[in-house]
Amino acid sequence: FPHASLCAIDLSPDYIRYAQKHHKAPQVSFLNANCESLPFKDECFDAVICNNLFHELPAEVRRQVFKEVHRVLKYQAIFSITDSAQLGDNASIKSSIENFSKDFYEPYHQNYIQDDLGKIFEQCGFLLGKSQTFLFSKTIYGEKV
């Protein structure tokens, strides 16, 4: 997509500074912002992609981010999430997923792995698309309806 403009967002100003220093593509802007309250007009994006965000959030914040993404997406735009696999995604890695939060001190991970992302997509106004798990990661997407 050579003519696409991209906006990368992170809550950490240090991560934003690092990205600005190391990634100089003119079509990419970097913004320090909170995903619970995005500084954008309604219906201004064709897609939103979140990587490794949702296991870092408490359940109520997770839902608020879904609602906020829905607000900034255009009709029929795509919301894609890639994050940790969850319980029920792959039985062979169940114990590893369950122990991750203890081994790496991830306070919201235990709740995240039990949360039903598909249900949240639907409750927040998305038509649920495909979900795919690869090793310890999961990608799931929905279309704004």
Write up this protein.
The chain is α/β, with parallel strands linked by helices and 145 residues long. It folds into two domains: 1-33, no CATH class; 37-144, 3-Layer(aba) Sandwich (Rossmann fold), CATH 3.40.50. The chain is 32% helix and 32% strand. The chain is built from five helices and six strands, in the order βαββαβαααββ. It has helices at 13-22, 59-72, 94-103, 109-114, 117-123, and strands at 6-10, 28-32, 45-51, 73-84, 126-134, 137-144. The strands form two sheets. A four-stranded mixed β-sheet has the order 3-4-6-5. It has a two-stranded parallel ribbon with strand order 1-2. α2 links the parallel β3 and β4 (73-84). The chain is globular and about 45 Å long.
Give a short overview.
By secondary structure, this protein is an alpha/beta fold. The protein is built from five helices and six strands; from the N terminus they run βαββαβαααββ.
Draw up the topology in text.
Layout: E1 6-10, H1 13-22, E2 28-32, E3 45-51, H2 59-72, E4 73-84, H3 94-103, H4 109-114, H5 117-123, E5 126-134, E6 137-144
Parallel strand pairs: 1-2, 3-4
Antiparallel strand pairs: 4-6, 5-6
Keyword list:
alpha/beta; 145 residues; four-stranded mixed sheet; Rossmann fold; 5 helices
Mean pLDDT: 95
Measured as a percent range, the helix fraction is 25-40%
Q: Please give the order of strands in the largest beta sheet.
A: 3-4-6-5
Query: What shape does the CA trace take?
Result: globular
Q: Which H/E pattern describes the elements?
A: EHEEHEHHHEE
CATH superfamily label of the largest domain? Vaccinia Virus protein VP39
Give the strand content.
25-35%
Sheet with most strands: 4 strands, mixed
Cα(first) to Cα(last) distance is: 24 Å
**What is the SS-derived class?**
alpha/beta
- The number of distinct structural domains comes to 2
Radius of gyration: 16 Å
CATH class of the largest domain: Alpha Beta
Count of DSSP E strands?
6
**CATH architecture call of the largest domain:** 3-Layer(aba) Sandwich
Note the quaternary state here: single chain
Residue runs with pLDDT of under 50 for 5 or more positions: none
